[in-house]
Design brief:
The chain is an alpha+beta fold. It folds into three domains: 116 residues, no CATH class; 150 residues, Copper type II, ascorbate-dependent monooxygenase, N-terminal domain (Jelly Rolls, Sandwich), CATH 2.60.120.310; 153 residues, Jelly Rolls (Sandwich). Helix 1 packs across helix 4 and helix 2 crosses helix 5. The longest helix is centred in the first third of the chain and has 12 residues. 34% of the residues are buried. The N terminus is likely disordered.
Length: 429
């Protein structure tokens, strides 16, 4: 079931709950259930966030009791798609069996309130942000007017930082100004001297047409927003570098829904309190040359990238589109040993989740990150835009992508070139 179907089901079931007589030993909301909601649900289920209903108080939660019971007992919520037998992740969003039992027993008992004095202290959420209040916010320079219909090419906007010194970013979060029309947005760093997009003006949204010369490779990805995505989760002492004089480049994918809108997406940054121990870089193993045949229910693609400098693997992010079926990450060490890192047997385009390893994995120089993806281009895929169409790599949702993003932590003197280009020394930042 995709995100939209789950939402419709939740809305249908929201008012269908009828309360039986509670047992004296049944769980109650304030003492037993509210702490679970605070820890596992309110990140999304609060005002202004992606969750379709706030779950922050008794009245607002109780009326959704039937929908909550179905969602947690079936493990549809919180969303988490990793095979539990492969890898261990510190941001594992699955509810424990004990928490599921507490919620279902509370609902089966009639969802009793209990004593409000037993409630934990409310979480001090910062409106509009999940990382807390950012220290600096950069936004697109002008609103982008989203039409009611049609296909919109990716929009770009260059925003100078005016940083007069190298800056280490501890947390970063991209927020759409118009969630209904922003499918995803990423913000990259254009370092001083980079030729990337130098022919384009700052402060004015623009598109890249086929055949345009962008002037070089895109800059390092700083942060992104996508369906169901959560903000960066770096450990203390880790940060991303924005060099003095760098620009931020917004890339935004808009989709139309029959109504016009206006968007001015933004990024909030929280800085490292001091010089970090490690620099974090986002890399990717991608396959962009493919043709998925019409009707194929299980088309396989592979991709890999070999790292030329030692590093530590900290996170994994599989990315496909509507025909995405499954995605696996593996690591192949220089001695030939292979280890499974992540298996996502039922990929969902509606939830762009990152998976942070429980413990960073040391990667010697010469280690290869390998990815395997399967696609369902058959009529049996309910999300398939057109099973009669052969599908290539492309930017729109009805095209496809096969990208295995991953983050590594490295010494502060190591840069992207050191990781990807044989023979370069650890001399550039």
């Amino acid at each position: 079931m995709n995100g939209r179907s789950t939402l419709l089901l939740l809305l249908t079931l929201g008012t269908s709950f009828a309360a039986p007589v509670p047992h004296p030993d049944s769980p109650v909301f304030y003492k037993d259930v509210l702490p679970i909601l605070q820890q596992n649900c309110q990140t999304c289920h609060r005002a202004g966030e992606i969750g379709p209903m706030p779950l922050v108080d008794f009245d607002g939660t109780r009326k959704w009791a039937s929908a909550i019971r179905l969602a947690v007992s079936s493990r549809r919520m919180p969303p988490w798609f990793a095979d539990p037998h492969v890898g261990s992740f510190r941001n594992d969003r699955r509810l424990s069996d004990a928490n599921i039992r507490t919620i279902t027993e509370w609902i089966d008992a009639g969802a009793p309130a209990g004593n409000p004095a037993d409630a934990p202290r409310p979480v001090d959420w910062v409106a509009g942000w999940s990382i807390g209040r950012p220290e600096r916010v950069f936004e697109m320079p002008v609103d982008f007017d989203v039409p009611g219909s049609g296909v919109i090419p990716y929009q770009y906007a260059i925003v100078p930082t005016h940083f007069d010194h190298d800056t280490w970013v501890r947390l970063a979060e991209v927020r759409p100004g118009d969630r209904a029309h922003v499918h995803h947005a990423i913000v990259s760093v254009r370092e001083p001297g980079s030729p990337w997009l130098r022919s384009k003006p700052a402060g004015i949204p623009f598109t890249l047409k086929r055949g345009d010369d962008s002037g070089g490779a895109p800059g390092e990805l700083l942060a992104g927003y996508g369906p169901g995505a959560l903000p960066e989760l770096l450990e203390p002492g880790q940060a991303k570098l924005v060099k003095a004089g760098s620009d931020l480049v917004f890339q935004v994918h808009y989709t139309t829904n029959g109504k016009a809108g206006h968007d001015r997406s933004r990024i909030g940054l929280t800085f490292s309190a001091g010089k970090p121990r490690q620099r974090v870089l986002m890399l990717a193993a991608a396959n962009v040359h493919f043709l998925i045949p019409p009707g194929d229910p299980d088309y396989r693609l592979d991709a890999s990238v070999t790292l030329q400098h030692e590093s530590s693997l900290i996170s994994l992010l599989p990315h496909m589109h509507l025909r995405g079926k499954s995605f696996d990450f593996r690591v192949r060490f220089p001695n030939g040993e292979t280890r499974a890192l992540l298996a996502v047997p039922h990929y969902s385009y509606s939830w762009q989740l990152s998976y942070y390893l429980q413990d960073p994995l040391k990667l010697p120089a010469g280690t290869t990150i390998e990815c395997t993806a399967h696609f369902d281009n058959s009529p049996g895929n309910p999300n398939n835009p057109d099973p009669m169409k052969a599908v290539r790599f492309g930017a729109q949702s009805w095209d496809e992508m096969m990208i295995g993003y991953f983050e590594v932590a490295v010494d502060l003197t190591v840069g992207m070139r050191d990781l990807l280009i044989p023979g370069t020394g650890a001399h550039t930042m």
